[in-house]
Amino acid sequence: MDERTLRANAARNSQKRVSMSDISVDNDLLVIYRERVQRGAKMLDSVRPGWRDEINLGELNMRYPCYCILGQLWGNYFDAWTNLPKDDASDEITYGFDVTRYERHSPTAIDIGVAYNTLDTAWREELSSRKSATDAL
To answer: What residues does each domain of the chain span?
Structure first.
């Protein structure tokens, strides 16, 4: 699927998106996700300096490929992940860009919405801890 199709589908489905503020956060998962997100943020620092300033927190939703961190930076999650430098042992979960199948269905995650909302929270915390260049002005 090309970028234009992904964005069109996302726009069409934007009203169907779950409001993440209506879903709880799993504190056990949050501890794990914070570590992963820090690893992902460091990787982004090395490949795209200033990336934090490109993220629209109002649109951030890790569940949707065009609104997640990678989607906002490169247009969609799939193209971005395919083209990012990484070692052979790493995957998108290692860097906090997705949740595992186990976490999506684990008793602690309750459901996929909680897992993704928890990942959103970890990224929002990371972004808040980094002052953007525009915040400093």
So the answer is: 28-131
